[in-house]
């Protein structure tokens, strides 16, 4: 059952237009309460469209607007991720930026840029997941490099400038390689005679994937994995990520970690279905597994050695994206469903943690782990939220990351990748030890007697953070409401 | 007849990429980028005649304007500002010397020929036989990016890489669909503008644009 025509066009336009309107409002009016609330509303509109379209998509249908845009179950899951993470980040962002302005750490002009660019980022990400054309998908993901460049550099310090330079150079190069891959796919499609709706039309390419030339597609897929892998924070072009995540304002780190990285993984999942039908499937799986495992090893090693809690969270993002890519590499419907659930849980959990880290930084004035001690003693509520977020992220029950990690391992064993799963479990154990010992240092013990004079936590910070954690917990316990949608999405890009 | 023009232009494109490794003066390198932009426009023009596509003619004009005039113009301004305000050396200060760079370029070109074999095999026309040139430009651009220390030379590396991709795209499919081409061009322009702003900030913050200064963030 699919929806087409004017109602479909309206459903597709809403999640793109709403953030664009919020962005235009901020550009015109500057940073003010109404504008900030507008961004939250826009994110919730994205969430609502993702949830609302499940009527059609969860049953395997789609909402189709012309040849360019399409909402299927996979796009629906990603819309929910963008809306939920965007909602938390934008909501917390209200208080975050008000504080920055009040303490003079930012200026009205920079706040206006912040208010303009954050919804613009959301709009670009929505275009990426709604695009049915792989050229448009590429362009939307690339646009985020430009949009977020000045968000990463918001702090204007030497460090944030360094992070921004690395971010723009490395991501531009990575995404340029993905473009070369896209061009090669276009070439293979032209030669195979896929021209009905333009040669980069995803649905057409999936239908004709078997006709594409294996030699060209192998090269193309390698470039695409390298390119989108850069945006997803995978080895070898990962080095921008810890710098950018640690320097960006907290809500922006949350958005990059919870939305930007998963959308790049989403692009890989879309391409994988085409690649397994045209290229030797073991090449596709081997390439994705190799990159994911290398990233996991790197993340585990650097987590052990970490002395900065924002960078700790950044390397944990590399770890979780590696897990999601392992799911994509396995590629069975169960593995894809687990990877998507993992993306949802990680997005919300990481949004809570980065926003919490922003609060810790505002109070303690340092991102060094050994500079923050005994947080439970001074700000129990903040410490409690942060600790709960870490427990979720470590994959302990009842949180959904436990369910998704169990699902991934089961899918891997079913696909006769037992040894890979063994390696993954050992690395996860290393990560567990690394994060829990560092966290104990921050949360427990006795801190300095006189805490920094900062007011109580804002309600506009506590409510979204707590809500995010509750959702991750609920998703871990019950199948509803995401279950049917995840399975439908897994059928779209999963192969047996 | 057009085949010879095609190969001549592709030879020029490859040569201009290699020359970037040879010249040390940044202003000379910017002139080479202008030359490469003109050649890219000419490539689109020749393909327009060969493939009889009206769209490519428009693309040729756009490429010429963007890559031979607008982008080099921005780079010249970056160069002028850094020389005026800071008396900064106008040289690239590569990490590898010229002979080593040229040898590397030769090896990368061989690699490009090997990598392009499946592309040529799929459709052995005059155009696809020239595709290794595009891939070699991509690899040389990458090489420039990792071996140069000045902010401006990193931008140059990115642009070489991008020109290589554009060359490849023209040669194998006569360019991508128009709207994607537009998005790509806009993107290159915006990236260069962002990098221009960042270079200016690097200069005021670090007192220079030596990328080696950027080493406060590490584990």
UniProtKB/TrEMBL annotation, chain A:
Topological relation to the membrane, as annotated: Multi-pass membrane protein
Signal peptide extent: none
Keywords recorded for this protein, A-Z: Cell membrane, Membrane, Oxidoreductase, Transmembrane, Transmembrane helix
Entry EC no(s): 1.-.-.-
Primary localization: membrane
GO biological process: one example: ATP synthesis coupled electron transport
The protein's name: Hydrogenase-4 component F
Lineage: Bacteria, Bacillati, Actinomycetota, Actinomycetes, Propionibacteriales
Pfam family membership, one: Proton_antipo_M
GO annotation, cellular component aspect: plasma membrane
Protein origin, superkingdom: Bacteria
Keyword presence, Transmembrane helix: yes
Species the sequence originates in: Kribbella shirazensis
Residue ranges of every copy of the NADH:quinone oxidoreductase/Mrp antiporter transmembrane domain listed in the record: 131-426
GO molecular function: NADH dehydrogenase (ubiquinone) activity; oxidoreductase activity
From TrEMBL, chain B:
Enzyme class: oxidoreductase
InterPro entries xrefs: HyfE-like
Membrane topology recorded in Swiss-Prot or TrEMBL: Multi-pass membrane protein
Transmembrane segments: 6-22, 29-47, 53-75, 95-116, 128-146, 155-173, 179-198
Domain of life: Bacteria
EC code(s) of this entry: 1.-.-.-
Annotated keywords: Cell membrane, Membrane, Oxidoreductase, Transmembrane, Transmembrane helix
GO cellular component: plasma membrane
Location within or outside the cell: Cell membrane
PANTHER family: HYDROGENASE-4 COMPONENT E
Name of this protein: Hydrogenase-4 component E
Provenance organism: Kribbella shirazensis
Organism lineage: Bacteria, Bacillati, Actinomycetota, Actinomycetes, Propionibacteriales
């Amino acid at each position: 059952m699919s929806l087409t025509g004017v109602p479909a066009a309206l459903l597709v336009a809403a999640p793109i237009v709403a953030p664009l309107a919020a962005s235009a409002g901020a550009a015109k009016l500057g940073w003010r309460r109404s504008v900030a609330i507008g961004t939250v509303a826009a994110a919730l509109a994205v969430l609502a469209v993702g949830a609302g379209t499940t009527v059609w998509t969860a049953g395997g249908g789609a909402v189709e607007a012309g040849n360019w845009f399409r909402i299927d179950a996979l796009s629906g899951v990603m819309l929910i991720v963008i809306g939920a993470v965007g909602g938390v980040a934008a909501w917390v962002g209200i208080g975050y930026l008000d504080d920055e302005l009040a303490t003079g750490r930012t200026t009205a002009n920079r706040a206006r840029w912040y208010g303009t660019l954050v919804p613009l980022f959301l709009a670009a990400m929505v275009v990426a997941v709604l695009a049915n054309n792989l050229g448009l998908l590429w362009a939307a993901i690339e646009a985020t490099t430009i949009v977020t460049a000045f968000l990463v550099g918001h702090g204007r310090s030497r460090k944030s400038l360094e992070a921004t330079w690395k971010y723009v150079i490395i991501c531009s190069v990575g995404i340029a390689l993905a473009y070369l891959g896209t061009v090669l796919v276009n070439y293979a499609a032209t030669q195979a005679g896929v021209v009905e709706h333009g040669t980069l039309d995803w649905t057409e390419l999936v239908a004709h994937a078997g006709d594409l030339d294996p030699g060209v597609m192998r090269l193309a897929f390698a470039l695409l994995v390298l390119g989108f892998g850069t945006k997803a924070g995978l080895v070898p072009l990962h080095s921008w990520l810890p710098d950018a995540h640690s320097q960006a304002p907290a809500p922006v780190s949350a958005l990059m970690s919870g939305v930007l990285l998963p959308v790049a993984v989403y692009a890989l999942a879309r391409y994988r279905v085409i690649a397994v039908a045209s290229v030797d499937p073991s090449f596709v799986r081997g390439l994705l597994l190799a990159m994911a495992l290398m990233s996991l090893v790197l993340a585990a090693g650097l987590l052990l050695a970490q002395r900065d809690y924002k960078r700790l969270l950044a390397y944990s993002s590399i770890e979780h994206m590696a897990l999601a890519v392992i799911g994509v590499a396995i590629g069975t419907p169960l593995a894809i469903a687990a990877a998507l659930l993992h993306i949802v849980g990680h997005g919300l959990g990481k949004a809570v943690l980065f926003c919490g880290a922003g609060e810790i930084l505002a109070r303690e004035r340092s991102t060094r782990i050994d500079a923050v001690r005994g947080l439970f003693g001074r700000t129990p509520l903040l410490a409690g939220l942060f600790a709960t977020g870490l427990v979720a992220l470590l994959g302990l029950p009842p949180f959904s990351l436990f369910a998704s990690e169990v699902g991934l391992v089961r899918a891997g064993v079913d696909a006769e990748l037992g040894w890979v799963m063994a390696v993954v479990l050992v690395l996860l154990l290393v990560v567990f030890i690394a994060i829990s010992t560092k966290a104990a240092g921050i949360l427990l013990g006795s801190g300095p007697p006189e805490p920094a004079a900062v007011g109580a936590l804002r309600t506009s910070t506590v409510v979204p953070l707590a809500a995010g954690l509750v959702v991750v917990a609920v998703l871990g316990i019950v199948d509803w409401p995401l279950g049917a949608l995840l399975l439908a999405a897994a059928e779209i890009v999963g192969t047996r | 007849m057009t085949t010879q023009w095609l190969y001549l232009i592709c030879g020029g494109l490859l040569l201009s990429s290699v020359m970037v490794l040879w010249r040390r003066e940044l202003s000379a390198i910017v002139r080479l980028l202008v030359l490469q932009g003109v050649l890219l426009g000419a490539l689109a023009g020749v393909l327009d005649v060969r493939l009889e596509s009206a769209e490519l003619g428009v693309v040729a004009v756009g490429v010429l304007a963007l890559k031979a005039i607008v982008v080099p113009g921005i780079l010249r301004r970056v160069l002028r500002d850094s020389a005026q305000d800071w008396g900064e050396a106008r040289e690239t200060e590569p990490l590898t010397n010229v002979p080593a760079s040229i040898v590397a370029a030769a090896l990368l070109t061989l690699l490009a020929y090997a990598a392009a074999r499946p592309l040529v095999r799929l459709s052995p026309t005059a155009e696809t036989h020239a595709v290794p040139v595009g891939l070699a430009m991509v690899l040389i651009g990458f090489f420039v990016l990792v071996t140069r220390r000045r902010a401006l030379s990193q931008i140059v590396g990115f642009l070489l890489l991008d020109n290589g991709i554009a060359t490849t795209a023209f040669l194998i499919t006569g360019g991508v669909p128009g709207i994607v081409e537009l998005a790509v061009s806009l993107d290159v322009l915006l990236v260069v503008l962002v990098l221009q702003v960042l270079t200016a900030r690097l200069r005021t913050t670090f007192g220079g644009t030596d990328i080696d200064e950027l080493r406060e963030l590490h584990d």
